[in-house]
Amino acid sequence: MSGRLGTVVIVGVGLIGGSLGMALRASGACSQVIGADQAPLDEAIAKGAIDRALPLSDAAAAADILVLATPVRRMATVVRDSLLHLKKDAIVTDTGSVKTHLVAELTPLLGDRYVPAHPIAGGEKSGVAAARADLFQNATCILSPLPENAIGAVRAVSDMWEAAGARLEIMTPEQHDEVFAWVSHLPHLVAFGLMEAVGDAATDDCDPAEYSAGGLRDFTRVGGSNPEMWRDIFLTNRDAILKVSAAYRDQLERFETAIKNGDGDALLAAFARSRITR
Amino acid sequence: MSGRLGTVVIVGVGLIGGSLGMALRASGACSQVIGADQAPLDEAIAKGAIDRALPLSDAAAAADILVLATPVRRMATVVRDSLLHLKKDAIVTDTGSVKTHLVAELTPLLGDRYVPAHPIAGGEKSGVAAARADLFQNATCILSPLPENAIGAVRAVSDMWEAAGARLEIMTPEQHDEVFAWVSHLPHLVAFGLMEAVGDAATDDCDPAEYSAGGLRDFTRVGGSNPEMWRDIFLTNRDAILKVSAAYRDQLERFETAIKNGDGDALLAAFARSRITR
């Protein structure tokens, strides 16, 4: 049914929010897409990411589904500023890359109408300029429905992401946070750490970074990611990250012990396994 | 002067040895390029990487410059098998990615005619099939001349690499090994460790590696590198690698402490620095 999702409001029209708007407008699944942002939204309108822009209070009042697509640390503020304006049956969802932290922050404010989600997409570039209608085609969107969510609310959010092209997968907030600590947050921490340690190794005589051939260079895309965004992710997914980072350091120490002992077989077995993980 | 380098013998005609042969043959700087290898060299000849193939003893007897381009751990064996056949004034050099280990192994056998070198080039693919005449164009070749080397021997090896298109840079074997421990060996150890730790995190219910989006995926090229080659590098550059890996783990622990303490400013400062190192 065309327009079945009603009015979708996207707060934070960057790469993710903008791409969602473009995909939803192309799909015909909602009657309109309204954008709200701290920054001007002329470019988002020109690009066709939203039908129109409204101040947050007016946008919230119009929303059937309100999508929080700002940085994670701003989401609670957005919710507080929207709360008095939201329709009684409006659904609120988000695109944040951490989940338990947001559930703890937002559920006390929103109760059963908050349906947590995390579309797994992105790219080197951020901002609405990089948005694309097909960003979520064949991407996975993790849904973390809460026990208190009404089935209709979960269905509406699922419907929205499927209309945008994503495949859905269900995880608890805790599962989500540990999985993404492993495959996204830890790799970034590892890369930032490598860049920092190599930088620290520079002396007046010699800066190793000048000789960055293969190896280090593969880490620089990750190590060049948005510092503020990653600070927020590390601080808001603290427990899972501390757990996986410690497990990772233990693994490095096992490698060091094998190197110290000249145990080539142990190294070879691990490196061969890493080809399989790959 | 055309052919000024005389006969260059390349032992181990893979990506590096094959590319060197192609570049030298194109440059006209040597009178001929002879290949010696454990594997058949038909493809190397068909590709124009060498003029002809000879058994190691005959090749060694013909060499003005003998280039060791086998895996590092085979080089001492090749030298032992060549020693009785080498002309008195033949020069021996290598392409190995570790230097102090090779100096300790080869100098007792070769004395002042061994001139250590390491061309910084490579790629995802190995083997002569991936060899290219321009692999060393604008690449750096590290030369680690020893105090006992005759100036003429150092000059011949420099001349050869410049004829192949490389820029030369001088480092002591110790400097070389620490710089490449930082920018090449440690990044590979870090990536192998990440793949292994993520693999270990899989349970019957959930395998995080299945969700490898950005982040982890950037590590998989490095983590998919040749296991035997990397085992050998880690074992033969042991001291430098243990040193930099421990420094790296300390850095990760500093990040963990900042995360534990909610110290976003410390994280932000480090991540911003990593953009500069990049």
Structural write-up:
2 copies of one chain form a homodimer. Chain A has 278 residues and is of the alpha/beta class. Chain A has 11 helices and 9 strands. The first copy, chain A, has helices at 15-27, 42-46, 56-62, 75-82, 100-110, 151-163, 173-200, 216-223, 227-236, 238-260, 264-277; strands at residues 7-11, 32-36, 52-53, 65-68, 91-94, 114-115, 117-119, 140-143, 167-170. Chain A has a 6-stranded parallel sheet, with helices on both faces. Chain A has a 3-stranded mixed sheet with strand order 7-8-9, with helices on one face. In chain A, strand 8 (140-143), helix 6 (151-163) and strand 9 form a beta-alpha-beta unit. Chain A is elongated and about 65 Å long. At the A-B interface, helix 7, helix 8, helix 9, helix 10 and helix 11 of A face helix 7, helix 8, helix 9, helix 10 and helix 11 of B.
